[in-house]
Every structure is written in structure tokens, then in C-alpha cells.
Amino acid sequence: MQKNNKKIYIVTEESPANQYGIGQYLNQLIDTLKELNLPFSLITLYAQTSRIEIQYEQNYEHILIPFNNKQSYHFIFYYQRAIPYLLKDIIPETIEPIFHFQVFTSSQLIQNIKNFFNCHLLFTIHYRSWALELDGDLKYLEEILMKKENLKSLELRVIKSLEYEQRFLTQIDTVIFPAFHSFKLYHKNGVINKNQHCEVVSHGIKDTYKSLTIRQKKAIKKRYGIDNSTQIVLFAGRLIDSKGIGFLIEAFRKVVCYQRDAHLFIVGDGDKEDMTYWLKMAHPITTKISFLGKINREELYDLYAITNVGVVCSFYEEFGLVAAEMILHKVPVIVTETSGLAEIVENNIHGLTVPIIRDAQGKQIIDVNKMQKHIITLLRFPEKGKEFAENARKRFLEKYEHSIFKKRMKTIYCNI
Description:
Blueprint lengths: L5 E8 L7 H16 L3 E8 L5 E5 L2 E7 L8 H16 L5 E6 L5 H10 L3 E5 L4 H5 L4 H9 L6 H17 L4 E4 L2 H9 L8 E4 L13 H10 L7 E6 L8 H14 L3 E6 L4 H11 L6 E5 L3 H10 L2 E4 L8 H8 L4 E4 L2 H6 L6 E4 L1 E3 L5 E3 L1 H13 L1 H18 L2 H13 L2
Parallel strand pairs: 1-2, 1-5, 2-4, 5-6, 6-7, 7-8, 9-10, 9-12, 10-11, 12-13, 13-14
Antiparallel strand pairs: 3-4, 15-16
Helix pairs in contact: 1-16, 2-3, 9-14, 14-15
């Protein structure tokens, strides 16, 4: 930052998504700002508190602006209208704020903030609602954009979502993309102005890798009640359709026909109905699949240490945080050929990739046969997996390690 009266205000919303990728990114960003000794505060909108609170954390203040869910939907308009007034009372007049937004919000709120403050606005793209609705199906997106009439309800939602994002982003001074695929897509479809300042900054993950002894690995396997000779296939993520969990279970049912010592660990949570469906799908090999639910990071790192094959089979990932974590921990990986995952793992160099194909109705599906073959290959030829893991770890250190993220963010903030 070029003037010492500037201060960064990270703006997010209270949401279940904060337990996943956005939450981890926020932790990365907060750690970075602490390490750089840059002044900042965290603002949480729609906070589930009874009144405005300012909590003083280590080296920064956390401003929580409450929202009563019981209020009418139309109250959101007045809530967003009030936010600049509230911030005006909190932010000293001598400060030139840098607002760093983490979620798409009302373009009217953005405009109001610009009217109230002499400020700079940044926005990091974490997800796009239209991409989630389409499961990242870019071919279908192109078809929708080409259509002029007879649009289905889903297609209308996609068009409106893109138009909303375009209105929002035109008011942002600096747009930060976590991967090149979304940057290219937005430029191609005119969502981003060609003259707009954009940066591509991948997530930065602290290197927590530890090499464990054979004895330590045996102890971890014993804790999970599995034999030391068991080969582990690992999935970690939210248990929703877009993560491809159903296709992984289908592929694994074929794997165990050839590889009887294989065991699939599924880490993550989901809706009760979804969990019931996945459990039924695991039949008749339920003894070969363990659903562990949501676990803490230390337990996850232990699982990485004993994993023979890690699978990330999403239809769409803005970045691909789980894949980046796996290559950090030297886990041989298999990923789908899509979006952010395709940027992290190059086939036959950093791991193996599985194509997303189409069924007879034109719907996206994951090539289960190719996934099955890849899993068996890495289980039967561990030296090949080790080679991939070593290459991928080097890639992590070159592109995704925390210090790289810190350097890039410092440059962005300090040039404002």
C-alpha cells in the first residue's frame, strides 16, 4: 500500500461455505496479512449475532454485522443499504479503505460503498452459481449463450447469473482469479472488461508435510481398524453429486474384483438423504468402504500419510484445494480433466486424469472404466505412483506453497 493511511477490510458473509474452501482461503489470507504486518480488519455480513459486535483477535478486529433470518426477504435491500452507514461510523475518516470482497453480493451495496468511501475494491472469485448449476458443463454453457429463444428455466437462471456477475464485476477495481480457466472464460464471454485489472493468484497452502516412519503408519492403520497390508484409496470433500462420489463408488466396486486388499475411505459430510443413497450404493462391498464423516485437519493429514491413491473426481472446481493438499502430502492422485483440477495435475506427469464424457442423453458423466483402471494401476505399480507424487510435490512447491501466495498478495495490496 502506497500510503500509510490505507487499511484492508476483508468482507465475507456468514455461510456454511466458510467450513470449506472459502474458509480455508480466509485463513490463508489472514495469516498472510499478519506475516506482512499490513493493517486489516475482517467484516462478516449476515452474522448470526443479536447486535453489531467488534471482536478483537490477534493483530486484527473482527466486525460482525447481524442479520435476522426471520425478517422478510425484502428486508435484505434495507440491510444492504444500511451497511455503508454502519461502516462509516466504524472506519475512521483518516483511513482510505481497501475492501476485499470474498463473495458475490449486491451491486447496489458495492455502489453505495463507493459513494461513501474513497476506496479501492478487490474481489476474489471462489465459485460461480451458474457453474455449480451446470456442473461446469462449458459445452452446455456455450449452447445457452447461443440460444435466442425457448430458454428453459435452468438456462434463464444461468443467463441472469452471468448478467448479475457482469454488473457486479464492472464495479470492482481488481478481480482476483484462483485459476486461469475462469479468467479465460470470463474474458471470452465478455463478463470481464478487457481493460479491467485482473490477477490470477492460486491459493497458497502452508507446507505441513511430514515423513512418517513405517511404525507410525502402522499405528494410524491400526487406529482405523484395518490391516497393515491394506491399500487405501481416499476421497475427501463434500458428499454431493457434483463431487462425483457416485461414480467413484461405482468404479471402486469394480476395483475390488481385481484388488481384494483395497479399501476406500470417504471423508466429508452431506445431507442425510444423500448419505443414505451413498450407503445403499456401496452395497454389497460395504465392508470395503468406510464413511468417516467430517474430521479435523490433523486426522486428515494422518490419512494422507497412509493413502496409496487419492481421488478428486469433481465435475467442476474453481481451484481444486483438496488436490493441491494431496500433492503437498505426496499422495499419488487421480483427478478429473476439468477446470482447476486440470491446471494442478498434468496427466502422466503429476498423476493420472479421468475424462468427463457424455451418456446417450448428452449428460456429463465420469468415465468409470478409466477411473477403475487408473486406481488399479497405481495400486499395482506403487513406484509409478511414487514418481507422480514426487513430480507433483515439486509442482506444489513451485506454484501453490504459502510463500508464493504471500508474495503475490503483497504486490497487489502494496501497488494500490
